[in-house]
């Protein structure tokens, strides 16, 4: 039988705690699913978490509480599974979205080159990781030195920073875009738009699919929320 937490508290409050801020439910400090104290670095992030708990009615659904879910992942998975998550992120360098261009039509290929070229140049010059580009979907091998360099850039990430990078990379399909947001070369909104070049072109040609648009809107919301959560921390 799965235990379902239901609202028992009258007031969710932000409280100063050792190492940052926590949220209490009628004086009971929140804990993560792995029973760690939920302590975040900033009062503003704690306030967002507190607001999510304050509006709960009936059953607690953390999937609908994005700041709480972000904190849980940063305090639990990004700690317990740090090496595995970093390795998974680094693998995206082998099949980075920006390296695969359309064979046709030429208009789409040109749009991809214009949008993605500058960021790949940034990867080569700033990250020290030039990547090969191909037309079509057949896998193209990347320079081993570049893949190692990208992995080296991922390795220092931990906690909330690792959680944020994971979301940016896995949602966009691009390690380069994720690192560009993390290093403030791009805003999350800019990176999201760059990750959607193909989809935007398809919509222009064939119209909008409501189901696909709804899924994209959900992913975009997460992509941008993570940036805001990191801004609240920093």
Give the number of helices.
11
What is the CA–CA distance across the termini?
40 Å
Structural category is mainly alpha
Largest sheet: 3 strands, antiparallel
Q: Tally of extended strands?
A: 5
**CATH A-level architecture of the largest domain:** Orthogonal Bundle
Please mark out the parts with pLDDT under 50 across 5 or more consecutive residues, or reply none: none
CATH class of the largest domain: Mainly Alpha
Shape: globular
CATH-level-4 superfamily name of the largest domain: ATP12 ATPase
What Rg, in angstroms, do the CA atoms define? 20 Å
- Overall tally of structural domains: 2
Helicity level: 55-70%
Strand order of the largest sheet: 1-2-3
The fraction of residues in strands falls at 5-15%
Would you mind describing this structure in some detail?
With 234 residues, the protein is mainly alpha-helical. It folds into 2 domains: 12-75, 2-Layer Sandwich (ATP12-like); 80-233, ATP12 ATPase (ATP12-like fold). The chain is 56% helix and 8% strand. It is built from 11 helices and 5 strands, in the order βββααααβαβαααααα. The strands form 2 sheets. A 3-stranded antiparallel beta sheet has the order 1-2-3. Helix 2 (66-75) crosses helix 7 and helix 7 (159-172) packs antiparallel against helix 11. The longest helix is centred in the C-terminal third of the chain and has 24 residues, at 210-233. It starts with 11 loop residues before the first strand and ends with a helix. The mean pLDDT is 96.
């Amino acid at each position: 039988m799965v235990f379902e937490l239901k609202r028992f508290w009258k007031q969710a409050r932000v409280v100063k705690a050792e190492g940052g801020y926590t949220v209490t439910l009628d004086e009971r400090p929140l804990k993560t699913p792995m029973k760690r104290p939920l302590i975040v670095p900033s009062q503003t992030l704690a306030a967002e978490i507190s607001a999510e708990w304050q509006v709960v009615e009936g059953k607690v659904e953390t999937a609908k509480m994005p700041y709480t879910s972000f904190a849980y992942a940063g305090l639990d998975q990004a700690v317990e599974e740090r090496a595995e998550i970093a390795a998974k992120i680094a693998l995206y360098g082998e099949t980075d979205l920006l390296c695969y261009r359309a064979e046709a039509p030429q208009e789409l290929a040109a749009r991809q080159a214009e949008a993605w070229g500058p960021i790949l140049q940034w990867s080569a010059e700033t990250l020290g990781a030039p990547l090969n580009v191909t037309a079509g979907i057949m896998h193209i091998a990347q320079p081993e030195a570049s893949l190692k360099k990208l992995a080296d850039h991922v390795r220092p990430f931990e906690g909330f920073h690792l959680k944020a990078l994971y979301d940016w990379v896995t949602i966009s399909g691009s390690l380069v875009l994720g690192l560009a947001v993390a290093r403030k070369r791009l805003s999350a909104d800019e990176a999201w738009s760059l990750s959607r070049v193909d989809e935007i072109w398809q919509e222009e040609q064939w119209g909008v699919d409501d189901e696909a648009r709804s899924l994209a809107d959900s992913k975009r919301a997460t992509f941008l929320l993570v940036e805001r959560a990191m801004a609240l921390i920093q």
